[in-house]
């Protein structure tokens, strides 16, 4: 028969037994008392009165005091004792502290659950496990909603959201272990409880039959005591049947003691013993008023009620109300202490509620003013995390406000997370754009790093380095990689450039030494008076000078010194500036001719033409400026200066044209040589 149906069956049986007992007590009293009101046993009263008295005395706990508080504490004691009676190890749950699970993180909750399941009796930790699971589920649901928001914010579809939580998996494993142990325990316990329930019902049946047996009263009394002992050793029964079965048992105990009026001596001895024991319990109960540990005192009170109820039988009617009232009064004192304690606790909970409301307000304020700056937003995230920790550590609130407070807190955090996620979604888009820009610059760097067009490549490298600095952050997972690649490409190029410059610098220092020596010789040069001979020697100086190439940038002024001395010598030889320039240029023409480099000639032509254009533009601009002085005399200093500049530019223009002519002659000469060479080959 299934466990539930078995309980229903026995409950039905108990009701039947109760009815039969009332009928039996009526019949037995009529037979034994004989209706003689003057008999020493005629204090039994009528059947109706006796039924009422039996119901009243069945549970001495049910006092005449109808105050709800008294009933509640008695119900609580009965319920707790029923739970403890189911298994001798159940009482251990009172010794396991209930921690503030609300203030714990998910990881700590898992750790505490592991400790309980591993070290404590499985039947003693139900309340603890239920509290841990409740808090864990709340926190994990909040955590999961936060992760889902991030997933959706980053472009995911809600239907595709999955999250693998190591902490949740660990919790499920430990909780599953707890359930397996719990189910195995109760499966084994169920068989024992049902067997014990049957034993107790059988004892009740035998107890009921004692008043119908025709035998010596001493023998009956001995059998009665044996049944009491059997009852004490019958073992635990289902907690749901505990109080009902006990009331039925106690009911028949009362009937038996009424039956014992035929042998008042045996009854009075029992009543006296029971009275002494119950008075001792009253003394112990009164002493609990001075116990500082309220929880310990209440547990002791539960034990006293259990002893009063289960281990000690009834007392004489003349003492029943009095001693129960004294015992109840001791219970009421402790109950009042608990009520006062809970009132103070409620005040603490109200303070906690105010704290949590304040924390929620702070979270809402941050959520309504979410920063649009990454650095500031990170500060706000830390503030929110600190407020969350503070919220959980603020303690419990009144039960009626618990769910509402939690929902308000969760919504406030959720609002902030939405704003935060929206910001980082936009930031992620910006960072992706920045990544694309930096990848484009990286491509340029990789293509340029091996270039030998130093002037153009150097400018380009410097440009992309500057542009790189103006581009914002990229996604973290790409940041180091792309930067290292870009830096490596730039370093590769500039290492090559510096190596070249170092080599050039060495050559330039050597050129400086040679040019310094040449300059010193030119300073000592004296004209012989033979113009042709002097020009030949001057050309020698020029050729030697051109041969040495560039000098260090800081020393390039040596070229001006050389040209200044040459100009002074040319003036002594009465050679015009243009002639001197062409004379100097002749050496370059010879070098171009010797190199036979079309590209070099092409670049030289572009250079000269640009100079010609610059001179023409300058002359045009000066002549336009001169129109502003149309009414001014030529003696005007400003006019003189403009005219002088025009003449200088015209001279420079003629010089550049002459250089271009020489270059054209050189190019034609080279072309003719190439044609002749081609014809010879044919």
Automatic annotation (TrEMBL):
Keyword list, A-Z: Coiled coil
Coiled coil: 186-230, 360-394, 605-666
Xref: InterPro entries: DUF349
UniProt-listed Pfam families: DUF349 (PF03993)
Chain segments carrying region Disordered: 30-71
Ranges that cross the membrane: none
UniProt feature, compositional bias: Basic and acidic residues: 42-53
Protein name: Chromosome segregation protein
Organism: Cellulophaga lytica (strain ATCC 23178 / DSM 7489 / JCM 8516 / NBRC 14961 / NCIMB 1423 / VKM B-1433 / Cy l20)
